[in-house]
Structures
1.
Amino acid sequence: MNGEILSELILGKTISESIYTELKERISSLKSKGTTPGLAVVLVGTDPASEVYVRMKGKKCEELGMHSVTITLPENTTQEELLKKVGELNNDKSIHGFLVQLPLPSQIDEKTVINAIDPKKDVDCFHPTNVGKMLIGEPEFLPATPAGVQQMLVRSGVDTKGKHVVVVGRSNIVGKPMAAMMMQKGNGADSTVTVVHSRTKDLPGMTRQADILIVAMGKPNFVTADMVKDGAVVIDVGTNKVDDPASPKGSRLVGDVDFEKVKEKASAISPVPGGVGPMTISMLMANTVAAAERAAR
């Protein structure tokens, strides 16, 4: 490619809008049978990024005509108090899905809280039961960000069958589930998957082999042009705030990929912002609607 052809932009913002159109029909159908899909979010403390994300979720529920509850607890909430709240939501029939926003304050053990969530309402897909079901190819839910990436590939017409997918990063939230999903049988998968991370020897050599490169390292501009094969499809999951004196805010958002340089080599690439970010919320809404449909059967 090398600049001869401008790479196609894979815009999560546009793709998520088409998903919302589909969800509105499903929500309307549920409401006609007396069920309004309900999503609750529990926020402990005052993490600014979490607060923004929670507000966006609430706003989107409202736009779609879903029931939305936000529970804000103080920073000094005990684990026992949080678990009590989780128990109440497990038993609340008007709530079909809920999540406890991470990270949690240090006095609370995240694993204990995640394990206490009813797997049928675990729309973040963090409960070990749901992670296991996903791994064996029988998912109740798919984790929101990896599911968003997969939908971006499918709805952009990217053929994944037999392609070499390299996932950069091995977190429980993105890297591991992404790899598990791409190796399954079926649409948007059937790929040969390699996972690379901070301990990988010759990481650039591995990323250069990728037909589809999915980057979730959490380091700004980590993937440079020399790490990408000509014609590769690049999905950038990273969201990093970097200083920018030219910006009115004094900072700007960048991904884990050096977008300006890599877009000269890639056949298709997702930008930051406007790429994977909007997909995460749309997939969370889709999981909640699916949970409501199952509960209404």
2.
Amino acid sequence: MPPLASRHLSSGDLVADRRLEMARDYAAAGEVVAAAELVEQALELAPHWAAGWFALGEFREAAAAADGDGTRRVRAAEAFREALRLDPEDRCGATLRLARLGAAPIPDAPPPAHVRDLFDGYADRYEASLVTALGYRGPQLIDDALDRHAAGRRFAVCLDLGCGTGLLAPVIRGRVDRLEGVDIAPAMIARARAGGLYDDLEVGDVAAAMAGRPAGSLDLLTAGDVFCYLGDLSGVFAAAARVAAPGALFVFTTEAVDEDEPGGEVVLRDSLRWAHRRAHLERVAAATGFAATAIESATLRRDRGREIGGHAAVFTRS
């Protein structure tokens, strides 16, 4: 996952900022207890620094994972709660950390401000990092799926959900008469607009973007590496069903839950990304009027030295 810009927001105190930077160096070297102690000192100077409290929670959580100290987990949760109190928009994602610690319910989606801040700070290096460093294959997987299940078909209007910087646009453009995109991060939309392949782009939530369109107005919807930032997909499938014309295709990728991985149909992982079982995709599709044309296993990208398995899925509006 890309680094959060909000985690690096200045406290307004140069000494406190410097201590956090030193703490990150200690943590990178495996000295997470020392890192936590440095952040505690920084927060004595800047007690209202939400990003500092979030960092303290991270280091305490890492220390708890290393030595199994339950007290450290409790204190990590306390730090995340303070970060959330100081920043109710939750740009750092404390809600998700609390959920992973079992200290709060697992939400169906991350805080919008967290996602916006995450990708606005990542836009300039997004493509190089995702494609080159992590071997991201989303556009290729969607291209291959369309070749297999809609060969030669031309679409009147496509909406690219969570379009980011427009990595999917070269894949989709030659298949559609009109290509539209939506993304929550303004900086990502600016990069997509510069690419010149979209007929229209908007900043916003994907469900809200679909709600603003006429019923039955789309015959292709795509989403590459988007649903890892959503839990239960019932809402997005319902929104897609309303705007999809009969016979429209809904083509997307999502992380898959491993067979031996604990949890239900939807799992929030340590990476703070959601993974979905095939059964969840089939269930929400059936409930909203989509039929599964294909749900194929695929490798999506690399992360932390391991390949991330997922689904390349094609659903058809009944």
3.
Amino acid sequence: MAQIIDGKKVAEEIRVELKIKVSKLIQSGKQVPGLVTILVGDNPASQSYVNSKSKACSEIGMLSKIEKHTEDFSEEALLKLVNSYNENKDYHGILVQLPLPKHINEQKIIEAIDPAKDVDGFHPVSVGNLVIGKNTFYPCTPYGVVELLLRYNIPTEGKHVVVVGRSNIVGKPVANMLLQKKKGANAVVTVCHSAAEDLTQFTKSADILIAAIGKAHFIKADMIKEGAVIIDVGINRVEDQASKKGYRLVGDVDFAEVEKKASFITPVPGGVGPMTIAMLLKNTFEAYSRINSGL
């Protein structure tokens, strides 16, 4: 049976580490890191995410603010709002919660954020720096994946990492992060997607398999090799009449079967998910540190 990679435990460790750092700033009378989250519309999932992010900030002593606006908030008004926080010295990280209403060009908004405050890691400057191996802000979920591998001492150098999925949020950035020639990376990386005629020929050769395809229980036990490390980024709702909500959350991996064959595996929930907010906090502290050191 695989060893469980406990994302909740690691995320809590990171929060404690950051809380100690923020406490030292408070004790010395210094400014603390600040994060503003901008929410447009009333998407329930987005509201839940935003509240969780704000609560996590407050719990470790960071300054946190939520800017909530109605669905009809204009693109022009949002651009002005983002720019006002680019200039605001109290906030070192700016996060615009996606998705945005259809009348707003998401890419335009992302590009309006000052790269020095791009704690989501989505600005083209951040993406470009990631690809060429410069110090940058990493998108929070891929950053969480790499951090889990590091903290569980799972070797990546020279290992074959297969990423199933090529999204800009997970697949592409995690592939680029693990390609870099540094500790916790330096892997041989293959990115797979729907155009592959036979996905199994790739997944079966993976030492580390990262599933980020958005299909419940897509990765089966016969698709991996014995002893592979399985990182499941997927979060999917499936019907479950036994649950009060009428559904339960599952990953892209058939956990019950794959767990018997893998060496390490992340559960869903409780694996990669909790790491996302932890790494957002880490990025915000890093943004604060860079701005205050003049970088």
4.
Amino acid sequence: MIRESRATLWIVYSALAILLVITLFPMALMVLNSLKPSEQIVQNPLAWPETFRWDNFTRAWDDARFGTTLWNSVVLTSLTILLVCTTGSLTAYVLARRKIKTWKLVTFYLLATTTAPIQLFLFPLYFGFARLGLINNPVAVAFIYTAVYSPFAIMLLRTYFLAVPKELEEAALIDGATSWQVFRRVMLPIVSPGILTVALIIGLYSWNEFLIATTFLQSQDRLTAVVSFFLLSGQYSSDWGVITAAAMIIVLPVVILFVLLQRRFIEGMAGGSVKG
């Protein structure tokens, strides 16, 4: 038994080590190439830098106008997280606690909207927003993101509310609390790991989203960081050192945030799989 357990542990750790290398290799390659001249990247992207080009980061910051575009991404992502977590938690609470006769239809709708590609709605949305004068409006784009990401958030948050014993609500109601007070003061603190998990996932989706952002935010002062990064690539030539440095600038905030909140995120994902 001891030998079998050791062999199992060795297999598990070996598999984890291989997966770790596969996961970190692109990141390491990006860091390495962000410090190289473009010519050396083209010759051998795996080689160690002959000279460290720290100016790649300053050039990327200026060329992509990251001072403006990163702020646009932060505002758009924050607004989307706020809208999705607010509407999603309210909807998920109702779906978890109320008996709905058409629950199968609601489930089908949530699954369908989660899997439906945004390209199906892109042209009608664009012409409608253009008629309303909402092109280049970050708030309008945040509402589109909310509509796209809310079904996933609702389905995930509903599992957290289902895991909360009903006795807690009944005790609060007996003590004289209103339904809104029960939701705000009892339920929300308990399901806060789930809300944090949804916020991190939706934030990552919104930060990296390209198609909707490039369609509805066309003005130079409204571009997001991902769109400005895409514009760094030239039609006939590209400075790959600057491009990889720009990729580092975009990825770094997400990596730092995840590292700081990884324990809460893992706890939230594990808690959401307890009951569905």
